[in-house]
């Protein structure tokens, strides 16, 4: 007794029977059918080229209507002559269209080649810039190496100039301690001295501050007066009443004493 009706019932699944988009009566050729292939973006809205096509279709239709009938040899020869002339005209028009299309394609090819050349030039410029950067870094590194070698050779020459005769000198301890730039004050790491290894050598280590036993002993040695303070409140110089307020006469005396000072 119950039934369901859904969106997928048989009535919704039925398709429309075939019906043509238009019906052409016998003996008539509608002009609008010549534009049936035009769609939006491809011929519509109509421009100058589409208007030329419509004019050519009208001219061809008028020409077909003007053809003589094929009832006599003279009319047949005239008809063939007119058809040959129309064929030559069609070929000339087609060649003109091909020339226009080739010109458009040539312009497109020129733009594509120009764009490709610009991209290639940009790529070449980028590649040359990176190569220049690499050569510049290599040059700077070489200059720094030459400067380091120059400073090293200058130090060697200065050291040789100090001892021209090449005699060996005895170690003068007094002279080393008198010169703050000597090995005594500033030893070199290449001679086996590494200051970071003994960085805590000069740190202050106190028994009374770093150990608990030292802190306890230090606390015992401190007198009681340091930890137990006894502060006495100073007596007021002015006369105070029982309620804790200063009398007017006492306040006046303190002001006069301050002015006198």
Fold topology:
Blueprint: H1 10-13, E1 39-40, E2 43-44, H2 48-66, H3 73-162, H4 173-178, H5 207-210, H6 212-221, H7 224-227, H8 248-260
General description of the model:
With 261 residues, this protein is mainly α. It has 8 helices and 2 strands; from the N terminus they run αββααααααα. It has helices at 10-13, 48-66, 73-162, 173-178, 207-210, 212-221, 224-227, 248-260; strands at 39-40, 43-44. It has a two-stranded parallel sheet. The longest helix has 90 residues, at 73-162. The N and C termini lie far apart (122 Å). The model has no long low-confidence stretch (mean pLDDT 84).
Mean pLDDT: 84
What summary fits the major beta sheet?
A: 2 strands, parallel
Strands, count: 2
Distance between the termini: 122 Å
Shape: elongated
Sheet-strand content, in percent, reads under 5%
Rg on CA atoms, Å: 58 Å
Strand pairing plus helix content: what structural class? mainly alpha
> Helix count?
8
GO cellular component, one term: axoneme
Pfam family, one: CFAP91
Family: Belongs to the CFAP91 family.
Domain CFAP91: 4-156
């Amino acid at each position: 007794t119950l039934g369901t009706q859904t969106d997928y019932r048989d009535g919704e699944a039925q398709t429309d029977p075939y019906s043509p988009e238009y019906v052409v009566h016998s003996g008539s050729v509608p002009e609008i059918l010549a534009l049936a292939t035009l769609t939006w973006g491809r011929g519509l809205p109509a421009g100058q080229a589409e208007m030329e096509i419509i004019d050519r279709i009208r001219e061809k239709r008028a020409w077909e209507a003007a053809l003589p009938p094929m009832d006599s040899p003279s009319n047949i020869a005239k008809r063939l002559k007119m058809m040959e002339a129309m064929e030559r005209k069609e070929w000339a028009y087609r060649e003109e269209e091909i020339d226009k299309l080739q010109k458009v394609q040539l312009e497109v090819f020129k733009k594509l080649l120009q764009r490709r050349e610009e991209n290639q030039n940009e790529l070449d410029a980028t590649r040359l810039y990176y190569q220049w950067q690499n050569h510049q870094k290599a040059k700077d590194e070489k200059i720094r190496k030459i400067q380091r070698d120059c400073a090293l050779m200058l130090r060697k020459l200065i050291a040789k100039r100090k001892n021209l005769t090449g005699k060996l000198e005895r170690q003068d301890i007094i002279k080393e301690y008198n010169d703050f730039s000597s090995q005594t004050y500033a030893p070199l790491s290449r001679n086996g001295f590494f200051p970071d290894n003994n960085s805590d050598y000069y740190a202050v280590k106190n028994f009374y501050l770093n150990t608990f036993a030292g802190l306890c002993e230090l606390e015992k040695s401190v007198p009681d007066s340091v930890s137990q303070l006894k502060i006495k409140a100073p007596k007021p110089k002015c006369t105070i009443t029982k309620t804790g307020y200063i009398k007017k006469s006492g306040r006046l005396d303190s002001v006069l004493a301050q002015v006198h000072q």
